[in-house]
Known about the structure:
This protein has helices at about 20-30, 45-55, 75-85, 110-125, 135-150, 175-185, 205-210, 240-250, 255-270, and strands spanning about 5, 30-35, 60, 95-100, 130-135, 165-170, 190, 215-220. By secondary structure, the protein is α/β, with parallel strands linked by helices. The strands form two sheets. A five-stranded parallel sheet has the order 4-5-6-7-8. Strands 1-2-3 form a three-stranded parallel sheet. The structure holds nickel (II) ion.
Amino acid sequence: MTYIDTHSHLYDEQFDDDRADVLQRAFAAGAGKIFLPNVNAGTIAPMLQLASAYPGRLYPMLGLHPEDLGDTWRETLQQMETLLQEQDHPYIAIGEVGLDYYWNRSKYEEQQEAFAIQVEWAVKYGLPLMIHTRDAHREMVQVLTDVRNRNRDISESRNPEIPKFSGVFHCFGGSAEEAAELLGFEDFMLGIGGVVTFKKSPLPAVLREAVPLERIVLETDAPYLAPVPHRGKRNETAYVTDVIAKLAEIYERDAQEVARITTENALKTFPKAK
Length: 274
Ligand code: NI
């Protein structure tokens, strides 16, 4: 069995003591590739260093996380955009970006402004998006729709293989209605991880009702959100096998098939990682 973990912060300092072992366990469990979402200016260097140590296995993204805006986000975004302008840059996606109104709404407008700028990058540089949303479904869909409508007339992306407007709604945990609305963005996938295994999660019923397996990619969000039976502990890519087992149960398919289909979905969405 081979699978892809599309969202893992393996460069995080929580892995400093045993990162090579964590990766060894991931590859042994079947992880063919692992995608690394960036969070702020300070995580770019450790992320790139890690990715370059595992060519063809680990792939970096570039973006500023909504919880990491700080006071200098405009400058940070300017610096990040210069990295995207370099020929042959290594980034396979813009991420992780989005809106998070769970803890506070103090940067309500600024989050939307920063998100819109980075969604525009996705169009301009022909890269998929890795989108984080928490308590902001309505606003997130609005920003995405606005940018898409603004760019309707752009007929060719730089790389014709890359769809102009695509990506992942990372850590999806919404209702069937919200799922249907997100799947209306036709080149986007829903990222499913440990939460689907939680005992009281409504997510299995929502997936069964509203989401075909052809629209799902696997993720950990490591070091966070470990699946049962590791819940509450540090998450790692090898634990995706527990998510695969749960999806096999939900969709009544065998685990091999879940791994194969979600791998195809991931490679379709992130063509630079082929
Ligand atoms: Ni994340």
